[in-house]
Specification:
Blueprint lengths: L3 E7 L10 E6 L6 E6 L10 E9 L6 E13 L1 E6 L5 E6 L4 E7 L6 E10 L7 E6 L5 E6 L8 E9 L6 E11 L1 E6 L5 E6 L7 E8 L6 E9 L4 E6 L5 E6 L4 E7 L6 E8 L4 E6 L5 E6 L4 E7 L6 E8 L4 E6 L5 E6 L4 E6 L7
Parallel strand pairs: 1-2
Antiparallel strand pairs: 1-3, 2-3, 3-4, 4-5, 6-7, 7-8, 8-9, 10-11, 11-12, 12-13, 14-15, 15-16, 16-17, 18-19, 19-20, 20-21, 22-23, 23-24, 24-25, 26-27, 27-28
Length: about 350
């Protein structure tokens, strides 16, 4: 099948369409660009490599415009795309080829150029990279690996340093995660990292918690918290670093957590209903609103965030495309984007600054 998997929106420092949209990313300084990871046609016998769609963002309307030539090649089953805080480099996790594609970003046009040799392995004995994140300092990157298939169900997190000049990743090894990790996120302070684990039997879910060594980038486990929801599919941390949210694709809800500022440990504060099969969650830059993309009901659940407790309150849903797989909010907080895996497109929205709708 084909589909878009992930979307990233960002604003780099000064100075097309495809199939299977999975992940969307957005950056920090004008001009602004957006990138979408497209899975490609994946099958056991004739897999087609994925690619990355590239766009500029209209600062007034939020509309996306393709950057020529539209896409750039990635690996097999491209699942996730992330951009470093400087807006100079982009990375894509390729699940079926077991590696990470690395790119430089043209600061003027937003066009991506592959680094030589172009990819880095997700680390020895690691398999199925599903998600990539870059820490706020831009010095380290982390990749959640879904597991080794028949060789082992437990996943891992690959750790890398980022070359500040070239953007090339260098391996720091890997640490253990839970069953079938689906997503990795780093808190805004760069001190903690979290991995959402989907679980083998789909009856539960969990979040692996880590501290980050500020000098080396190495992760150290601080344990795992089992979620009440089933199949943890995505994790996001609010801009204040006080709260975390996890979607559950098999129980159709979102878990809410507070974060211990000293240790990074999560404490559950309950769950709230989402749509059918929520696979992605994002928090807006103000920390007042959260959004979950529901691939089973083809919509986006919208929430306000209690600034004191972190609790979510539903403010309804917004229609999306077919099988929405990922949601992202631009750094201005004015626009949101949803990558639709089934219709191979991106839904674009404005955000009401008062209500979050």
């Amino acid at each position: 099948m084909a589909g878009t998997a992930a979307i990233t929106v960002f604003n780099p420092a000064p100075g097309g369409g495809a199939s299977n949209t999975v992940n969307f990313t957005i950056g920090l300084f004008l001009p602004r660009f957006a990138y979408v990871a497209n899975e490609g046609l994946f099958s056991d016998f004739f897999p087609t490599p994925g690619n990355v769609s590239m766009y500029t963002i209209d600062a007034t309307t939020g509309a996306l415009t393709a950057i020529a030539p539209g896409t750039i090649a990635a690996g097999l089953h491209s699942r996730s795309v992330a951009v470093d805080v400087s807006g100079k480099f982009a990375y894509v996790a390729n699940e079926d080829s077991g590696n990470v594609s690395m790119y430089t970003i043209n600061a003027a046009t937003g066009a991506l150029t592959a680094l030589a040799p172009g990819t880095i392995a997700a680390d020895a004995a690691a398999a199925g990279p599903t998600s990539v994140a870059v820490d706020p300092s831009g010095k380290f990157a982390y990749v959640a690996n879904g597991g080794d298939g028949l060789a082992g169900f437990f996943g891992s997190v690959s750790m890398y340093t980022v070359n500040a000049t070239t953007g090339a990743l260098s391996s720091l090894g890997k640490v253990a995660a839970g069953l079938f990790p689906n997503a990795v996120a780093v808190d805004p302070s760069g001190r903690f990292a979290y991995v959402a684990n989907g679980d083998l039997f789909r009856g539960t879910g969990s979040v692996s918690m880590y501290t980050i060594n500020a000098t080396t980038g190495a992760l150290t486990s601080i344990g795992t918290i089992v979620t009440a929801g089933a199949g943890a599919s995505s994790v996001a941390v609010d801009p204040s670093g006080k709260f975390a949210y996890v979607t559950h694709e098999f129980s159709d809800n979102v878990s809410m957590f507070t974060i211990n500022a000293a240790t990074g440990a999560l404490t559950s504060i309950g769950m709230i209903a989402a749509g059918i099969t929520p696979g992605s969650v994002a928090v807006d830059p103000s920390g007042r609103f959260a959004y979950a993309a529901n691939s089973g009901s083809n919509d986006v659940s919208m929430y306000t965030i209690n600034a004191t407790t972190g609790a979510l309150t539903s403010i309804g849903t917004a229609a999306a495309g077919i099988i929405p797989a990922s949601v992202a909010v631009d750094p201005s907080g004015k626009f949101a984007y949803v990558a639709n895996n089934g219709s191979n497109d991106v839904s674009m929205y404005t955000i009401n600054a008062t209500t979050g709708a």
